[in-house]
Amino acid sequence: HHVFELNDSENDDDDLFALKTNDNQQEEESGRLSKISQMTIETSSTSNKNSLEFQNFVAETQRLLKQLSTATSDQTEDDEKIAHELVDYIPKIPESTYLSDNVESSLTTELLASLEQLLSVDKDINDYYDKIEYTSTRENTTKFQNSLSIEEEPMLPSSTVSTHALPIFNDTDQTFILYMSCSQTYIYVCTNQHMLYYAKLTSADPIRWQRYSEMCDVLAVSESNRSVCRVYNKKLYIAKDPLKIPPVGIEWECVEDNVLSVCIEDYSAWYIKEDEMLYMRLHNGDKPPENISCPFQLRKVVCCKEKVVVTTFKWEILIRIGCNEDCPEGDGWIIIDHSLGAINDFLLAHNSLWIIDNNNRVWFNHYESIDRGFIGNEAYHEMILPIAEDNDELEEPLTTITTKNLNKHLICHSRDLLCLYDTHKLQIVHTSAIGVRWQPSVYALNDGQTRLQRLIYAYPDEDIVWALRADGNLFCTNLDVTQSYTFAKPLTAQHLTHASFVPNSNSSKNLVWALDESCNIYVRSVKDSNWLQLDQTQFDWTIKLVHLACNSIGVWAVDNEGCIHFRYGHSVESSDCLSAAWIEIPGHPANEHRYFLQVYCSKTFWMVWAIDNKQCIYVRKGITEVNPLGKEWNQIPNVSAIELAISDDTVWILTSLGYIQKRNQITFENPSGNTWTTLPEKFHSLTASSQNEVWTLASNHQLVKLEQKLVQL
Questions:
Q1: What CATH number matches the domain at 171-384+408-430, 2.130.10.30, 3.30.1330.30, 2.60.40.10, 1.20.1250.20?
Q2: Average pLDDT of 104-124?
Q3: First to last CA, the chain
Q4: Strand partners, 469
Q5: Which PANTHER family does this UniProt record tie to the protein (predicted)?
Q6: From the candidate CATH numbers 2.60.120.330, 2.60.40.10, 2.130.10.10, 2.40.240.20, the one assigned to the domain spanning 438-712
Q7: pTM for the whole thing?
Q8: pLDDT at 438 over 70
Q9: What is the pLDDT of residue 344?
């Protein structure tokens, strides 16, 4: 048996592999090969059997391992060929295993590590992950994801959204999108001027639109592009040979009149006529259209994988079940209660019911089964999308498109894509979608002095939240056991104005630093009952600390002149005197008459942010283990905040209008991040745990928790 090592050469782009034989390691390598082969089989048994990509991975890996294990020392050329083939295959392993949803991650990780050890590759196996794109590679793609920090794994679900320009219309025509649909390969939009535009859905970006010559009000297409139909002047036309002559085929045949809404699958078409009844027509055979009995007056119909969904004029949603080859018309209805009022559009796709309400907000409810009844969550999650900092996402400016009548929000889907038309742009969601909802807690303290005024800290995985009450005391809620208790303020303080906890995974071992109305500093342990007031004689008598935040290595603070300071460590000397440990951090806001008011940090030492007196926010850059104080303050453009909360990899801000925004793609190399995501609803205060468990105070001062949900497309 042989161990193959990768020899890097600076002058040669092609890596050469040197073969080294070590007879003393023959038994060890043989055992390792056997272990890898066994792990491959175990991983396959725990994986999604329908994942062709993963099955190919297992077969290819076992083939290469078998050849490698049977190689002999005199088969130098064969050994080298196998070595090249196996090492070249390593970068494909993570991608293949990633595509299988149910792969046991520990087995996969161990398998990769064993392969790396077998090959003695100098580069760490994780280096290969950076070279693999799991989503479409697009220049104008906004990646909505949580990048890895130094020590932590991603904690929030991720999604990818690309933004595209719409066809350029004549401004004087008051043109807007009326209908949108897509197949696996094409996307179509119909305008109120009876124009049809289509574009191919490929990895090329941006989308290139073309206009179709025929007039069209609605175009429906099956997912495979096998069947295409259009409606013009309420006449329904079926296309011939759309697969042979894409995207819409040839020789339109008029098959029905007075059609208001239509959807199509490979072998049948469903449509609603002016009589507000539903009809089903098979593409093959001479059987006349069949009237599908329904007790409601219907307005729109959509199809998805043998499921037919309709809406009524009272906004009820009904799903037709039992549709199959033996009974294409189905055998019953299920009524879905959405409680969202009037809706603009809806869709059944990716095991989820998607609804766009009258305010153009997108909601979804993931379901487990429809044929046995709609088994899903009672609550709907609102879909959120990232916002790029720049405004050049679109291929061309949309100044020629009027927005007067752009009050619709349309949706369609294709394989792993979700397409959204939002007033002036087309957004395509790749891979997955993220939804949020706010879950009220059992605590709603509104009786005068006991109501919560500002959130301070949240422990991960414990549902323990600390807050300042209106009476100036610290308040703690333990929602797991529905208990709460109060930390009385120091005897010398009228009320506490701010507090910060030293990060600790155990809520019973924490230290808390606090400030009162006179800017006195107090420290106490969660277990203790006494506050210790710290002597600040290090500072001039005119200097007072007005805000502070603790991270894993020390305390950051802002004084009343807008300067920021840092102190190593959190413990307090028994002499009740604060040692001369505060270091003034150089740097101030660039603009005149600006000064810092607040400073925030995460548990990790390299995430430090600040807010100035104009509500502008800044990030401290250049923080490393060698230089934990950093190098400079950089302002984040086009955003303002009155409060921040920082987890291990995300910054959450509360704007002056009460909205919460999330900063995405923060890494050690890029501590400022790249994009924003705005969450729905308005709030008074927020805090976040190190694992992105977000808590807020609603307008009635009720404690509310953010619930996030990921749907794979």
A1: 2.130.10.30
A2: 45
A3: 44
A4: 452
A5: RUBY-EYE2-LIKE PROTEIN (PTHR23287), TECTONIN BETA-PROPELLER REPEAT-CONTAINING PROTEIN 2 (PTHR23287:SF16)
A6: 2.130.10.10
A7: 0.70
A8: yes
A9: 87
Task: Read off the DSSP letter of residue 93.
Answer: H
Name residue 303's beta-bridge partners: 308
Q: How far apart are CA 89 and CA 163, in angstroms?
A: 33
The string of DSSP letters for 538-599 reads TS-TT--EEEEEE-SSEEEEEETTS-EEEEE-----TTSB--S-EEEEP---SSTT--EEEE
> Which amino acid, residue 131?
K
**What CA–CA distance (Å, rounded) separates 275 from 285?**
25
**Token pair recorded at residue 317:** 């949603």
Q: Which two tokens stand for residue 608?
A: 């430090």
Chain position carrying tokens 């009995």: 293
- Neighbour tally for 477: CB within 10 Å: 23
Q: Enumerate the domain spans of the chain.
A: 2-129, 171-384+408-430, 438-712
Residues 408, 425: Cα–Cα separation, whole Å: 12
| Neighbour tally for 431: CB within 10 Å | 18
DSSP string, 32-90: HHHHHHHHHHHHHHTS-TT-HHHHHHHHHHHHHHHHHHT--TT-HHHHHHHHHHHHHHT
Q: Is the pLDDT of residue 259 over 90?
A: yes
462: its two tokens = 């414990």
Query: 433-455 in b/e burial notation, b at 16+ Cβ within 10 A?
Result: bbbbbbeebebebeeeeebbbbb
The answer to whether 214 and 249 have CB atoms below 8 angstroms apart is: no
Instruction: Answer yes or no: are the C-beta atoms of 118 and 33 closer than 8 Å.
Output: yes
Write out the two tokens for 388.
Answer: 């790029």
Segment 471-530, tens digit of pLDDT: 888 888 875 555 677 888 888 888 899 999 988 756 556 789 999 999 999 998 887 778
Cβ 662 vs Cβ 673: under 8 Å: no
Tally Cβ neighbours within 10 Å of residue 29. Answer: 17
Cβ atoms of residues 112 and 123 within 8 Å:
no
On whether the CB atoms of residues 566 and 575 are closer than 8 A, the answer is: no
Bridge-based pairing of strands 375-376 and 425-430 is unpaired
Q: What average pLDDT does this structure show over 634-647?
A: 94
